[in-house]
Write a structure and sequence with these properties.
By secondary structure, the protein is of the alpha+beta class. The protein contains 9 helices and 8 strands. Helices cover 36% and strands 15% of the residues. The longest helix has 20 residues, at 43-62. Residues 1-6 and 219-229 have low confidence and may be disordered.
Length: 267
């Protein structure tokens, strides 16, 4: 077994789809783990990378002199790599992907990605970013899945719909990145039974073929909230341990932005 990636030994294959659901403003971490199909990335790792990048930026800015206006202005600003609410920069996300799995993410509009833009099925995975939200799309077990941490479960995407979905995300303001490199194989539920405590779950591929209402219920410790409430309200109730009224108020105050609502509830 590859200790770094949890890579299975020969003749051992997983048919599961790993999915982490949103906690606080940690969609960058969830996106990386959903992409890698294993709980490999932690908040501490991302924070360490952000601190390293901040230090390198300080060194570069100091070259113009520590008394210069640019340097003093830079030092007066907060980190450009991690926000107070826990959101990490694209530089941090890219760096983490490279360190954890040797992967690169390249904007789909880059000249070298022309073939992938014309035929997305030729890629193995995508990461998409809009404002402070990240989500992953990956091909697993011969099918494509949207592994958005704001969703209650992975969403199966047909080959025909994948290209249209990427176009839709682009129109909504997302930047789409193509993942380059050898993707690690999916991890195994029995190796990571503890993940249910962090609002994550392994789904069997055949479960995801069923409509959500007919899918088997999750284990008790990740049981879905009662029906009749919007998905975002239920997610905020679970994530922030607040009432439905508090969750609705935060969503209204943030104009429906789930992550901003979570930040308001944290404050």
């Amino acid at each position: 077994i590859n200790a770094e990636y949890g890579e299975p030994a020969p003749n051992r294959m997983s048919n599961s789809v790993y999915h982490e659901r949103q906690e606080a403003a940690l969609c960058g971490m969830h996106c990386i783990n959903n992409l890698l199909q294993a709980p490999l990335c932690t908040v501490d790792q991302l924070a360490d990378i952000a601190e390293e990048l901040d230090a390198l930026e300080r060194i570069a800015m100091a070259e113009s002199g520590v008394e210069s206006a640019d340097y003093l202005k830079y030092m007066a600003q907060e980190s450009s790599n991690v926000a107070e609410n826990g959101n990490f920069s694209i530089q941090v996300i890219k760096n983490a992907l490279e360190r954890l799995a040797g992967l690169a993410c390249i904007p789909i509009n880059s000249p070298e990605m022309t073939d992938v833009k014309e035929n997305p099925l030729g890629a193995g995975a995508f990461m998409c970013n809009h404002d402070s939200h990240w989500l992953a799309l990956r091909q697993l077990h011969g099918s494509w899945y949207d592994l958005n941490s704001l969703s209650t479960r992975p969403t199966l995407l047909s080959d025909t719909y994948l290209g249209m979905y990427l176009q839709q995300l682009t129109l909504e303001g997302f930047t789409v990145f193509v993942i380059q490199g050898a993707l690690p194989p999916p991890s195994f539920p029995e190796d990571n039974a503890w993940v249910s405590a962090r609002n994550a779950r392994y789904w069997e591929a055949n479960e995801l073929l069923l409509p959500e209402a007919l899918a088997p219920a999750p284990p008790p410790d990740v049981q879905e909230p009662a029906s009749g409430q919007s998905e975002m309200v239920r997610m905020l109730m679970d994530m922030m341990n607040v009432s439905a009224e508090q969750a609705k108020f935060a969503l209204e105050a943030s104009n429906g932005d789930c992550e901003e609502a979570a930040n308001l509830l944290m404050g």
